[in-house]
Specification:
Oligomer: single chain
Radius of gyration: 19 Å
Number of helices: 4
Strand order of the largest sheet: 10-9-19-18-15-16
Shape: elongated
Structural class: alpha+beta
Helix content: 10-25%
């Protein structure tokens, strides 16, 4: 088994910013929406994500992506450019992929890994036909591009609210948002435990929280 697929053989997911990487099915999603990468670009992203925060040298990337084949540095640069384009990595002051000049590349965002477990409880938010899976720990909701639930609407604060998923379930927190956060008719002043079917009002948008032991429905829609 190659080192590019080993990370996904036991169904390990990686999360960075609003992105989820699943090597087992060779898929990367932004808030549930599948992104389209060429095979080499996906391989490059997998190496950088699972080696994070280490800077992976150009020589190592050549060996792992093009073993036994000579390619120029321009080929690697071209694959990096593709990754940046697909990930919408446009802000040089806050890059997703960092260039260590003369050395190599690294993922510039915190990476967390999640082990899929049989019988694990799934949590997600629906907005109309869109769906975002929530991960264990903090799930930021807001206009921040790195938010797990990215709502690019003016009435939503940059860091509006967050759902913290733990062994006991999911807890919703308002983060001092300008237009507040409500569950049903209750405006949040303190954190609240969420129940399946709860309707969450954020900046005029209604998100519906769901949880299940049988996983996400098979009709998962693109992300918000």
């Amino acid at each position: 088994m190659s080192d590019l697929t080993r990370a996904g053989a036991d169904r390990t997911f990686a999360h960075f910013g609003p992105f989820t990487l699943d090597p087992a099915v060779r898929e990367v999603r932004r808030q549930g929406q599948a992104l389209h990468l060429t095979p080499k670009a996906f391989d490059l992203l997998t190496v950088l994500v699972f080696e994070s925060p280490r800077v992976v040298s150009k020589a190592e990337l050549h060996d792992r992506l093009w073993a036994g084949t000579f390619v120029s540095d321009a080929t690697l640069v071209g694959v990096v450019k593709e990754l940046r384009r697909v990930l919408e990595d446009r802000d040089p002051s806050s890059p997703i992929i960092r260039t260590a000049h003369g050395v190599g590349y690294a993922i510039a965002r915190p990476v967390t890994q999640e082990q899929a477990r049989a019988g694990a409880v799934s949590h997600w938010l629906d907005l109309d036909t869109h769906r975002v899976q929530l991960v264990e720990g903090e799930n930021l909701i807001g206009r921040d591009p790195d938010a797990r639930v990215w709502l690019n609407v003016g009435s939503v604060s940059r860091r509006h609210a967050q759902v913290i998923v733990g062994p006991q379930g999911a807890v919703l927190h308002d983060l001092g948002s300008k237009n507040r956060t409500s569950v049903g008719d209750t405006v949040l002043t303190d954190p609240i435990n969420l129940s399946d079917g709860d309707r969450i009002l954020i900046g005029g948008l209604v998100l519906v929280y769901h949880t299940s032991r049988s996983g996400l429905p098979t009709d998962t829609q693109p992300g918000l």
